[in-house]
Amino acid sequence: MRDPELQPDSVVRRRMEARTRKYRGKLYIAVQDQALELDDVAQAIFRRIDGTSTLRQVAAGLAEEYGVGVDEATADTVDFAVQLLGHGVVEVVA
């Protein structure tokens, strides 16, 4: 089955299998045999993924925090969520 396409109004949540660890100021996410290192922007997006907020809402907080346009933040948030979905870190709720 193909992964659903994510849109700004999609809602995702962290999967229970995804483990996070902060080490030397960096956030790492591990799923099965993969580990991802998140930069500051990726960390800000990941912190906001709560299983109830849409990706658009996540992006609005990101835009405010970093002083970027909402459209740019939304595109970046959706792109990153697609990557997380592909790595099995998140799953689609709605």
Main attributes?
40% helix, three-stranded antiparallel beta sheet, 94 residues, 23% strand, alpha+beta, two-stranded antiparallel ribbon
Largest sheet, in brief, is:
3 strands, antiparallel
Strand content: 15-25%
How would you classify the helix and strand content by structural class? alpha+beta
* Overall 3D shape: globular
Flag low-confidence runs: none
Helical content class: 40-55%
Radius of gyration: 13 Å
Ends apart, CA distance between termini: 17 Å
Q: Give me the number of helical elements.
A: 3
String of helices and strands: EEEEHHHE
Q: Tally of extended strands?
A: 5
Account of the protein in words:
With 94 residues, the chain is of the alpha+beta class. The chain has helices spanning 40-48, 55-66, 70-86; strands at residues 12-14, 19-23, 26-31, 34-38, 90-92. The protein contains three helices and five strands, in the order E-E-E-E-H-H-H-E. The protein has a three-stranded antiparallel beta sheet with strand order 2-3-4. Helix 1 packs across helix 2 and helix 2 (55-66) packs across helix 3. The longest helix has 17 residues, at 70-86. The radius of gyration is 13 Å and the shape is globular. The model has no long low-confidence stretch (mean pLDDT 93).
